Amino acid sequence: MASAHGRILHIDDDQALAILVGRVLGRRGYDVENIASSEAGLERLARGEIFDAIVLDHFLPTGTGLDFLTATRALPGRPPIVYVTGANDAAVAVASLKAGASDYVIKTVGEEFFELLATAVDQAIETARLQRERDRAEQEVREARDRAEILLHEVNHRVANSLSLVAALVTMQAKAVDDPAARSALEETHSRISAIAGVHRCLYTSDDVRSVEISDYLTSLLRDLEMTLMKEGHAATARLQAERVEVGTDKAVSLGMSVTESLPSW
User: 107, 127, 157 — which closes off a domain?
Assistant: First the structure.
């Protein structure tokens, strides 16, 4: 197997075993530091020391490794922990996993234990690396999505303003036209532009740019039409009864144009 590289904190008060673990992991390229108590381990982590993994024995001078797991579980950036238990401590091994250990190894006599421990350390470090990369990728996706939503809201805001300006210009042009057919066509164009502008106004204030809440949209659209009619000297009031339903933007535009074209011409 290819040589590994990393810094390992080994918490175990069995100095003879610690020497053997240091040799085995050292042959894989790891720099192993042994300490005898969980308190010393907590102090090292509290100082901000960086380790790629921790090998943690169950029985310690002032408690068990489970106490260490509990004390460090909420620490940000805690390294993966490989838990070492006795041969008859299967229940403890399960408890260690529930407490946040990445893996466990049953302590036995012979070379098999050291090989299993080294493999568990390799896998724990690799799993932690992959998790960090996945978290980083997910964060980048979230940030990219947030930036895209901000830009899209800004685009919808600008489009709505531009369409409102075009609608106002169409209204001015309609006033200057004497031909009834041309005036009617401009009035219809104004209504359609207003309907589309209303959708974009809803979109730049919405959390989801794929849809529009139809009752809010139609209420805003009718309010704009009432104001237009009042400016033209017409007294008009529109009433709306609609359920709060999310509608796709294309359908919202079609509904808006249908509403405006069903109202009397100004």
Answer: 107
Rounded CA separation 136/132 (Å): 6
Question: If you count them, how many residues does the chain have?
Answer: 266
Among positive and negative, which fits the CA dihedral 111, 112, 113, 119?
positive
Residues 6+ apart with CB under 8 A from 38: 11, 56, 60, 62, 63, 65, 67, 68, 71
59-60 and 63-64 strand pairing = antiparallel
> Whole domain around residue 99: which residue ranges?
6-107
Residue where one domain finishes, among candidates 55, 82, 107: 107
One-letter amino acid at 12 equals D
**Considering the domain boundaries, does residue 119 fall inside one?**
no
Do 188 and 259 form a contact (C-beta atoms < 8 A)? no
Q: 29: number of CA atoms within 13 Å, CB side?
A: 9
Tokens of residue 207, six digits? 């959390």
Helix, strand, coil % in the chain, rounded to nearest 5: 60, 15, 25
Per-residue pLDDT of the chain in tens (266 residues, 90 and over written 9): 444 579 999 999 999 999 999 999 999 999 999 999 999 999 999 888 999 999 999 999 988 999 999 999 888 889 999 999 986 777 898 899 999 999 999 988 788 999 999 999 999 999 999 999 999 999 998 888 778 777 766 776 777 777 778 877 887 887 788 888 887 788 778 777 776 676 666 665 666 666 777 777 777 777 766 666 665 555 666 676 767 777 777 777 777 767 766 665 54
Residue 115 in any domain: the answer is no
